[in-house]
Amino acid sequence: MSKLTLASYPHLLGFEQLERLLERSSKTGNEGYPPFNIEQTSERSYRITLAVAGFAESDLSITVEDRQLVIRGRQSDDSEGRIYLHRGIAARQFQRMFVLADGVEVGEAIMENGLLHVDLTRAAPETVVQTISIRKG
């Protein structure tokens, strides 16, 4: 059985970029840490919430790179001079990536109670009607 691609559907023209986008989003390298939620907060807005307990604002960076929202966390290792009897809380770094559609803009980021909230908004699409004239050949 052959793999179905968007090119398999002759009525979908110019969607090669969408296929590359789907392929790229499946290879984002997210291994499940930290856990996150995505919620729709209105008809045109969303909120991504990451559980980042133990991270300070200065340990986190949020960037948009090539239509990808990239959230990185790196804690400084302050264990020097400490003797742990058990260490279950690791100073672990992470990178979470979310592919953004055209028209989706990143708003503000808020840190509260060990949760990082990143707000996104989607612009209303323009309705465009174009009439094509037919000329004789």
Draw up the topology in text.
Elements: H1 16-25, E1 36-42, E2 45-51, E3 60-65, E4 68-73, E5 94-99, E6 104-112, E7 115-122
Antiparallel strand pairs: 1-2, 2-7, 3-4, 4-5, 6-7
Structure description:
This protein has a domain at 31-76 and 89-124: Sandwich (Immunoglobulin-like). The protein has 1 helix and 7 strands. It has one helix spanning 16-25, and strands spanning 36-42, 45-51, 60-65, 68-73, 94-99, 104-112, 115-122. The chain has a 4-stranded antiparallel beta sheet with strand order 1-2-7-6, with no helix packed on it. Strands 3-4-5 form a 3-stranded antiparallel beta sheet.
Number of helices in the DSSP assignment? 1
Q: What fraction of residues sit in β-strands?
A: 35-45%
Rounded to an integer, what's the Rg over CA atoms?
Answer: 21 Å
- The ordered H/E elements are HEEEEEEE
Assembly context of the chains:
single chain
* Helix proportion: under 10%
The biggest beta sheet reads:
4 strands, antiparallel
Query: Average pLDDT across residues?
Result: 86
